[in-house]
Write a structure and sequence with these properties.
The protein is built from nine helices and ten strands. The chain is α/β, with parallel strands linked by helices and 254 residues long. The chain has three domains: 72 residues, Rossmann fold, CATH 3.40.50; 55 residues, no CATH class; 69 residues, no CATH class. A four-stranded parallel beta sheet has the order 2-1-3-4, sandwiched between helices. A four-stranded parallel beta sheet has the order 7-10-8-9, covered by helices on one side. A two-stranded antiparallel sheet has the order 5-6. It is elongated, with a radius of gyration of 25 Å.
């Protein structure tokens, strides 16, 4: 069972109480302002949320709760009505990692790992999909069909794969039927025999390939990063890969 209900709370233009001084209180003020909230230090303000960063917060927290304000008390999870997750922002896309106040350090470490995985263009993809809502409804009038089409497009290796940096620019082509997630050729040269040196994009290409064309000497440790059922075609150096259906990855020795 979940320890709490994750929610995204809109506070733009709304008062939010922040009580306290020092680094912890300043951090809460910054995050409120970043979300468009209006910071107030007035305990009696007509707010729905409050952050308390005081050495002895019990009485103030109780007073706030008594009038229906949801309270977050710094470093006192047992007094919190809500906790603040570690946030990753990509435009309108927000990824929140929380531990219910158990370990903020762990939440931060996980968020930093995700920072390296999610491209900065993810927000542009979200904006493009939002702008394309009417066009999607026009092409797929049935909600179930529309959902399945979008799921396929956003899947790994799909034409709108969220982890591909240029996905936002392919939304119009996808809607027009000109982009297909299962076709196309991706080619790269190895800079190392160590499969751990593959870039994230190269690893994704291999993981979604229907066929792999490779020059002699490409290590097996690299080739096995492809799907187990992907076809393999050896290539002579400089040779043009054969015409193959599906998603094809070409690996040169470098």
């Amino acid at each position: 069972m979940m320890h709490s209900l994750p929610l995204f709370h809109r506070i733009a233009g709304q008062p939010v109480i922040v009580l306290g001084e020092g680094d912890a209180a300043q951090a809460k003020r910054r995050i409120v302002e970043r979300a468009g909230g209006l910071v107030t230090s007035d305990e009696a303000a007509p707010a729905r949320l409050a952050f308390v960063a005081l050495d002895h917060p019990e009485e103030i927290a109780a007073r706030l709760k008594a009038r229906g304000v949801l309270v977050n008390v710094v470093d006192r999870p047992e007094l919190c009505d809500f906790t603040v997750p570690s946030l990753l922002e990509r435009g309108p896309v927000l990824v929140a990692v929380g531990t219910g106040g158990v370990s903020a350090g762990l939440a931060k470490a996980l968020r930093l790992r995700l920072e390296a995985l999610l491209p900065h263009s993810l927000g542009a993809l979200a904006e493009a999909l939002g702008a394309a809502r009417a066009a999607m409804r026009s092409r797929w009038s049935d909600a179930g069909e529309r959902r399945r089409a979008l799921d396929a497009a956003l899947a790994e290796g799909g034409p709108l794969d969220p982890l591909e940096a240029d996905s936002a620019g392919r939304v119009d082509d996808w809607l027009a039927g000109g982009a297909a997630g299962s076709t196309g050729i991706a080619e790269f040269s190895l800079h190392s025999a160590d499969s751990d040196d593959l870039t994230l994009r190269q690893a994704r290409w291999l993981g979604s390939a229907d066929a792999v064309c490779h020059e002699a000497g490409v290590p097996e440790a690299v080739l096995i990063r492809a799907r187990a059922d992907a076809l393999r075609y050896p290539l002579e150096p400089g040779q043009t890969p054969p015409q193959l259906a599906g998603r094809v990855v070409v690996i040169r020795r470098g």
